[in-house]
């Protein structure tokens, strides 16, 4: 059977679009939640047990829901937000809700690895909490943060493939519609190969970038 490369390239474009837009919004959400989870915990810059406990519970709830279930559960919200429950735009909504809390935990862990002495030194120099976060905490954790975002991006690629199960578009939809339902082994092999190459490329790029920004 002849391979329709235009169709494959179109599906690849949809996957890249889904991952890129989802990563953008999920990173904004995750970075905000991750920083708040660190600075509001006991003994930190803006200690606030109530805020920490609420945010911690929200993140735990969303992280405990498997992506395939989350996609179905938020269909009414997705339809309300983008006007449809199928297609690339619809897939982005559950991908953001799934990845945002996951990125928050990765960012939280990276920030907690920073030597407390760095913040103590910053406070001794008279830095404000905002300055400590932006000029000391995040830069010190940048190498780890980049690795975390690399892992999150790879997770989003996997989520975009699963989104094909409910008509989310992209390589996952192509693999299910043509590779599985129409028994087109060639299409299945090609889509899997493309996904493997994407993951390998992203992981390599993330590792290299992380090493370049790592503080000596």
Automatic annotation (TrEMBL):
Subcellular location, principal: membrane
Transmembrane segments: 16-39, 51-75, 81-104, 144-166, 186-209
Pfam families per UniProt: BPD_transp_1 (PF00528)
GO cellular component terms listed in the entry, alphabetical order: plasma membrane
Top-level division of the source organism's lineage: Bacteria
Record key words, sorted: Cell membrane, Membrane, Transmembrane, Transmembrane helix, Transport
Protein name, per record: D-methionine transport system permease protein
Organism field: Lentibacillus halodurans
